[in-house]
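Thread: 5-amino-5-deoxy-1-O-phosphono-D-mannitol complex, take 2
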Amino acid sequence: MSENAESSNTISAAQTTVKAESQKGDYPDFMLKEIHEQPRVLRDTFAGRFDAQSGKLNMNEIPLSTEEINAVDRIYIIACGTSYHAGIVGKDMIEQAARIPVEVQIASEFCYRQPVFTPNTIAIAISQSGETGDTMDAIALAKAADTPIITITNVADSSMTKESIATLQVLADQEVSIAATKSYTGQLAHLALLALYLGQERGTISAEDISSAYEDLTQIPQQVESILSESSIAAIEAAAATCYKAHDVIFIGRGVAAATCMEASLKLKETSYVHGEGYAANEFRHGPIAMIDAEAATPVVALAMESKTRERMLTIIKEVKGYGGNVVALATEGDTQAANLADSVIYLPRIREMYLPFTAIVALQVFARRIALLLGRDIDHPRGLVKAVVD
Ligand code: M6R
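Output below.
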């Protein structure tokens, strides 16, 4: 490269940085800005999807007929990292509403397996960037088997959209921080809608249940806003302050909350370099519970919100306390029992069990960011990471 070319590149990189920095507004970092943008992303995604008059949810992006949707007998969700974690939640959403078996596959592993594509399999690729190399390879494998691809992505004209029969456009706008936040909840929003839509077309969920689930979805933006209120953030940050010196932070939950634990531990690891591990709470008792070190008061973040497994979670919290763990409980507003058992509590608004990941992860994004901040990390640019892994 000539000296001139190099210097003009340097200038343009510097200009880009200045431009990006100016877009931070009053926020100290993009991660916090993007966390706060989530209510807007969710509101925009849910808006106008349900016609109260006809009682129908619309998803005009999907070009499959009702007959074709009825014939679907398997769905592969393929994705990496945070998008993979969204896929795990999506599996439960789709299986519950549409009664189609769903397999969620880490895209980079999918390519080295021998997936069984039936003639009526469809694949859903999830990707913030729409360019991730591993997911592109998995798409190529599915396409070679004539499997139609639906992509959920934040980037409209990305490589993945070009390979797909349909794109569900995540409405997050550009995400600058390496740690995915608003793109993740934006992906969850599309998965929730897609699950209801598939169920509607297959007749596996009643019109009444779709309407009530949709109503609950439209409440989520304000519920997320309440988690991002000053007092709520103060409680989350106070809990984080009791954990930031730890070597390991363990996240436990059940059902869709277990998938949230995986994403929360990824957020912690990538932003703070503290080891985090997400477990299905009961599975945690089959070995990993030995990691709780009373001397170190190992932090255990327990997702114990109102759900069919709350009681069981409270029992596990007692057990963890008995071994000397420092328990941070995520509990539904007003749950004094959970608060009394734990060392700290983070309250979340009451929400339909299937939609717990939307609110719980927002609290845990704030939690991870706080720990990273207390450790003096570069919040938006963690070491060794790039926004899209394209090779
Ligand atoms: O762009 P993609 O969603 O396909 O990227 C996949 C992962 O690299 C990505 O989700 C990564 O895990 C997150 N940036 C972590 O916050």
